[in-house]
Design goal:
- The structure holds three protein chains of three kinds.
- Chain A is an alpha+beta fold.
- Chain A has a single domain, classed as Cytochrome-c3 Hydrogenase, chain B (Orthogonal Bundle), CATH 1.10.645.10.
- Chain A has 16 helices and 16 strands.
- In chain A, strand 4 and strand 5 form a beta hairpin.
- Chain B has a single domain, classed as Rossmann fold (3-Layer(aba) Sandwich), CATH 3.40.50.
- Classes of the chains: A alpha+beta, B alpha/beta, C alpha/beta.
Chain lengths: 488, 165, 342
């Protein structure tokens, strides 16, 4: 069969290529999204002092280092059996909301959004942040740049660095904030709320007001019927930092709700020979292949999933937008993948509302930002919502706190199977009778971009080839034949 | 299988005031000892940077010997204590990298101790002989699959369909 | 990349004077890309000066486009990430051929960075961990990703994963290095300006400071006499006194300046992400010397115990970012039962 290769996939974090096979009639027989990268964090973090894990694992991804930093820090609390003081928890959650808002801004305006703002089949040279700037003008571009600048400056102020902070420790954080810094956080938070409202308005004007885009969003080619996973607080509201993990079925009803530390009873990972990225699935439902439906263990963990898995938002403006979202798209659950872009902007509104709430809490400038562990470290799980999905870090250590074993299930990894399914379905829906253009291939890529993938995150792991040798010996013990693979 | 005995190649850093003079003494006194140590004279054992040791090992040495004045007798007062601390740090690290302790040794020898230095050298040579060659750069080899894989990428790219803009 | 919406209006001579820029990532994390975007509005100046022909994070240029270019057609390539797989080696060779100036951008390309810690293991050890031993992996059939997989429609290829991660300059000839994990945005802009004005150091140089992080640290320093190294979770350090003096292993003494000494400002020690200062060949050797000189003891057994207890992970402490670029490059490879490597 003829093979079309999209290499590399672009406007995401990480590496990937898509191979599309066309049958004799020029229709898509199959499409594969292969992840060709891997680095091996689960192995090479063994032997490292546990307190280094926030700094080590954040190098899984430079777009969402704060997510790994936070999951690792929470895991350390559990490894060292220490409970951080309230100031520390609030600082962490506030910092985390700031990061979330910044990351979601980057994705919408620089990665996934250009397809809508500039157009999915616009010339490739224009389908990027610069093209967006040219299209919308410097006024609006200035707002986007300010949001990213503000977000990164706050992350740097609180956590040390804009990319790869050095802040989290078992029992708290390395430093608190002063009153002046708190004032700055609140001020920029209120600006960010305005920016989020503006972004939602832009989405209304550019996307929802355009019938072609609305048809695209609602089309079957871009819709899957999967389980959805997200973290919720005690009121079943979306929470990025802490809570229980909730999974709802393709019909929207709650199927599982569990503590992060019990993740192994609910999620397992499988291996395919054509991708370095593993494929998580719901263990109790079982792996039935790359399939939709209530009997298939495939699940999604994305901003859209979080909205589906929750009953609402914890802050007022976001809650109002939540209700509008589901009203507009026909009730829960919302399964069209491209709606994830809207869900992401909804979270972009919740994040600064939450961050301002925490910045105006008197405990945020408390002087106790860390307590020292007193117990012998053993084992712990730390879980947060990464912008791209539920992120789980699990460490075991010896009595000195040196890591002996690591397990990571990363945001985008959760979505590996659904992303593959979305790419295949979009390719089948768009490419017919051998008619392929570069623009159509970009529209196939849009099927994964909605997930805001972070394949660097996803492929923390490293595979290889199994060397195998069989030797046949004659009755005297001499080797008469050797059969081998991957041995030189 | 060759009958050739493995002859370790060892680099030695000997300090000018004590251990190098001890080696000189061994020479003038016609004391016989293993010729495997290539001696480099430094002014003080405290001059020996861990870089020198790592460079020697990575470039093919099977071992390294550092020799200085006895503690308390350093010509520059205290620098052999620095050598001691650095050596301890280096040994701790080399162990973690898979290099046996016996490959890198620190000994003290005063200018009068030609016999003792010769014996120390014989001992380290036999130690390393029994460990075998280090051949550190063998660790950097990739297997033959690498070149085939590079060629396969070119093939894979060429076989994909051209798509119009 | 055009700066007007109508390509036809682009001044033809202006288009000719625009350089070509490629920004590529190998075994890295994307942090260098985010740091580049951290120059904020100056990205428009970059877009004015260059057509960005390859930048998978943010633009849609494909490898095909680069393969079709003439040798040397790309003016500058900022290459981040270490060389871990055959695909990454291929891209390093391709971009070297097609670029006039190739820059090892960031710690991964310069010295290996965190993924370089994989050089404490080999492919099989790492592969057994990820694909079999990790607790949530269900793989009773021992499936492993393969270089070639036959599917009903044809053949799928994956790059070969190497036993040893290499730096960019261990793979191809490199013109300049920009250190840091990631390089700070301000330093990136300074480097771009230097390239645009031709104000660059000799080929093979690091574009960066020539002093250590300590020079930018505001903490008070007196004498360092350490009888015990402390783990970061064991104490709450005084915010005004040198961290190393308090027993915390701060790598600032061995690390090139350029970040502005950011981590100690939030009470965390420097972890060495900017690599060695000067032309040090081995970062770990520098740090080993520096820490050895602050130990307050003359007794060999006591010294050994201070080190054993305070530095439980010497490979990770001394070569956290620099293992592939160090003199030894990796730990000894594990030996298989048949006496050969895996």
């Amino acid at each position: 069969m003829k093979r079309i290769s999209i290499d590399p996939i672009t406007r995401l974090e990480g590496h990937g290529k898509i191979d599309i096979f066309l049958d004799e009639s020029g229709n898509v027989a199959n499409a594969y999204l292969q992840i060709p990268e891997l680095r091996g964090f689960e192995k090479f973090c063994q032997g490292r002092p546990a307190e280094e894990m926030p700094n080590l694992t954040e190098r899984i991804c430079g777009v969402c280092p704060e997510a790994h930093h936070m999951a690792a820090t929470k895991a350390l609390d559990n490894v060292f059996h220490v409970d951080p003081p309230p100031t520390a928890k609030k600082l962490r959650e506030m910092f985390y909301s700031i990061f979330f808002a910044t990351d979601h801004t980057t994705h919408f305006y620089a990665l996934g959004g250009p397809d809508f703002v500039v157009g999915p089949t616009a010339p490739p040279a224009e389908r990027n942040l610069i093209g967006v700037v040219n299209k919308v003008g410097m006024d609006i571009a200035g707002k986007v740049l300010k949001m990213r600048r503000d977000g990164h400056s706050l992350i740097k102020m609180i956590g040390g660095r804009a990319v790869h902070p050095n802040w989290g420790l078992p029992g708290g954080v390395s430093r608190g904030i002063t009153r002046e810094q708190r004032d700055e956080v609140e001020k920029l938070g209120r600006d960010a709320i305005e920016f989020a409202k503006f972004s939602l308005q832009l989405f209304d004007d550019v996307v929802l007001a355009n019938p072609e885009y609305v048809n695209l969003i609602k089309s079957d080619a871009y819709t899957q019927q999967t389980y959805n996973m997200g973290t919720v607080d005690e009121n079943n509201h979306v929470n990025f930092y802490d809570g229980k993990i909730r999974v709802v079925g393709p019909d929207g009803a709650e199927k599982f709700k569990y503590d992060a530390q019990d993740y192994r009873e609910y999620v397992a990972e499988r291996v395919e020979p054509w991708s370095y990225l593993k494929f998580p699935y719901l263990k109790q439902v079982g792996w039935k292949g790359f399939a939709d439906g209530v009997d298939s263990g495939v699940y999604r963990a994305t901003p859209l999933s979080r909205l589906n898995a929750a009953d609402g938002m914890a802050t007022p403006l976001a809650q109002a937008e939540y209700e509008r979202f589901f009203d507009t798209l026909g009730g829960k659950p919302v399964q069209p993948t491209l709606a994830t872009h809207w869900a992401r902007l909804l979270e972009l509104l919740y994040a600064p509302e939450n961050w301002v709430r925490l910045a105006t809490d008197p405990e945020i400038v408390g002087e106790t930002y860390r307590v020292l562990p007193t117990e012998t470290p053993t084992e712990g799980v730390g879980c947060v919502e990464a912008p791209r999905g539920t992120l789980t870090h699990h460490y075991w250590t010896d009595e000195r706190g040196i890591v002996t074993n690591v397990n990571l299930i990363v945001g985008t990894t959760n979505n590996n199977a659904p992303i593959c399914m979305s790419v295949k379905k979009a390719a089948k829906g768009l490419i017919k009778n051998g008619e392929v253009t570069e623009g159509l291939l970009n529209m196939v890529e849009m099927a994964f971009r909605a997930y805001d993938p972070c394949f660097g995150c996803a492929t923390h792991s490293l595979p290889g080839q199994m060397p195998l040798e069989v030797r046949l010996r004659d009755p005297d013990g001499n080797v008469v034949q050797r059969l081998s693979q991957y041995i030189d | 299988m060759s009958d050739e005995k493995f002859e370790p190649r060892i680099v030695g850093f000997l300090c000018n005031w004590c251990s190098y003079r001890a080696a000189d003494l061994a020479g003038t006194a016609r004391i016989s000892y293993a010729p495997n140590v290539r001696i480099i004279r430094v002014m003080c054992s405290g001059r020996v940077d861990p870089t020198f040791v790592l460079k020697a090992l990575s470039l093919g040495a099977d071992g390294v010997l550092i020799a200085g004045c006895h503690p308390g007798e350093c010509h520059y007062i205290e620098q052999n204590y620095k050598a001691m601390r650095r050596f301890s740090m280096l040994r701790h690290t080399l162990r973690a990298m898979g290099v046996e302790d016996e490959r890198v040794e620190l000994v003290w020898a005063s200018a009068a101790e030609g016999q003792q230095l010769a014996e120390a050298i014989d001992k380290i040579v036999e130690q390393i002989r029994s460990l075998g060659p280090l051949n550190w750069s063998d660790n950097w080899q990739e297997n033959g699959a690498r070149l085939q894989a590079l060629a396969d990428i070119v093939k894979e790219h060429n076989e994909a369909l051209e798509v119009p803009a | 990349m055009s700066t007007t919406t109508d390509p036809k209006e682009t001044d033809a001579s202006a288009a000719k004077t625009k350089g070509k820029l490629a920004i590529y990532w190998a075994a890295s994390c994307g942090g260098c890309e985010i740091s580049i975007l951290g120059i904020h509005e100056k990205i428009l100046d970059v877009a004015n000066a260059f057509d960005i022909v390859l930048f998978p994070c943010a633009t849609d240029g494909k490898v095909r486009d680069v393969e079709k270019m003439a040798d040397g057609e790309i003016d500058v390539c900022l290459f981040n990430g270490g060389i871990r797989t055959s695909e990454q080696e291929y891209m390093a060779q391709l971009l070297r051929r097609k670029s006039k100036v190739l820059i090892a951008f960031g710690s991964c390309a310069s010295e290996g960075c965190i993924p370089g810690l994989a050089n404490l293991h080999d492919r099989q050890e790492i592969f057994d961990c990820a694909y079999q031993e990790t607790v949530s992996t269900e793989n009773p059939a021992h499936v492993r990703p393969r270089h070639e997989t036959t599917v009903p429609e044809g053949t799928l290829q994956l790059p070969v994963f190497y036993d040893t991660l290499r730096t960019l300059d261990q793979t191809v000839d490199v013109d300049f290095y920009l250190p840091g994990c990631p390089p700070e945005s301000a330093r990136i802009w300074e480097a771009i300006e230097a390239l645009l004005t031709g104000n660059v150091p000799p080929k093979g140089s690091v574009i960066g400071a020539t002093t250590t992080v300590c020079d930018f640290c505001d903490r008070t320093r007196t004498e360092k006499k350490i009888r015990e190294f402390k783990r970061t979770w064991e104490i709450i350090p005084d915010p005004d006194i040198c961290l190393l003096e308090q027993g915390i292993i701060c790598c600032g003494i061995a690390t090139r300046a350029g970040c502005g000494c950011l981590c100690p400002q939030v009470n965390s020690p420097c972890i060495g992400c900017y690599g060695p200062n000067g032309d040090a060949e081995d970062y770990g050797a520098r740090l080993m010397s520096a820490l050895a000189s602050v130990i307050d003891s003359d007794d060999p057994d006591e010294i050994a115990e201070i080190i054993r207890k305070g530095i439980p992970d010497p490979a990770g402490t001394f070569y956290r970012f620099s293992l592939p670029g160090s003199l030894m490059r990796r730990a000894k490879k594990p030996v298989g039962a048949n006496g050969n490597g895996h």
